[in-house]
Amino acid sequence: MEAKTSKIFGIRAVIEAINSESSIDKVFIQKGISGHLMNELMQHIKKNNIAFSYVPVEKLDKLSKYNNHQGAVAQIAPIPFHDLDGLIEKTIESGETPLFLLLDQVSDVRNFGAIIRTAECTGVHGIIIQKQGNAPVNAETVKTSAGAAFNIPICKVDHIKDALFILQAAEIQTVAATEKTEDTLYQADFTKPTAIIMGSEDRGINPSILKMVDTKAKLPLKGTIGSLNVSVACGAFLYEAVRQRL
């Protein structure tokens, strides 16, 4: 299944897209550019906590196919994002035991797409990502997920901590996949309403988040390599949850 990520270029057009609550994944801003209209755009970006980065003009030229971008190009996600509170409520009302997945700044698009695919195959009710620092939800993500991104709800939150508070308030246990524990995933009880947290490729789960979770669990490793690829580790955790729930 193919997905084309739309792009909007032009400062005023990007502002209007933000005001219309489009599913903006990221905004690219030309380095060194200034002016009243650009300042207004930045105010909208920061107010709505939209991911953005400063890039050379050459990148904007390529993104806009050399149309008049005025120093700003917005990337629109190919899927709509879901409200976390509403998704939790809907899942609980369905009578199914909730299973959610939180990604603490997984930055590689291929890992992200592979995780989405596995999550969809294992019956995850929703994936939760942070607005800043996560891999983009773009056409490459959808392709790597084999189209699964169209079939599983994805929620964006200002910070993963926000999601933890909401999940724990709904009596959904939070389980961190981390090597910083003596307990393995086989000791965790995934038959309960559960949200599994996976960390980024380089540093794992943020220490401040580890302090908040209900349970920590690790994968037993028998070789000399100290960790697994995050998408592989995620698959192991999710299928242990499936095994326990069968």
Q: Strand tally, please?
A: 10
CATH topology of the largest domain: Alpha/beta knot
Low-confidence segments: none
> What is the CA–CA distance across the termini?
30 Å
Strand content: 15-25%
Shape type: elongated
Strands of the largest sheet, in order across it? 7-6-5-9-8-10
Using the coordinates above, name the CATH class of the largest domain. Alpha Beta
CATH architecture of the largest domain: 3-Layer(aba) Sandwich
CATH superfamily of the largest domain: SPOUT methyltransferase, trefoil knot domain
User: Order of SSEs, N→C?
Assistant: EHEHEHEHEHEHEHEEHEH
> Total domains, how many?
2
* Percent in helix: 25-40%
Structural class: alpha/beta
Rg measurement, Å: 19 Å
Q: pLDDT average, as an integer? A: 92
Oligomer: single chain
**Main beta-sheet strand count, sense and barrel state:** 6 strands, parallel
Give the number of helices: 9
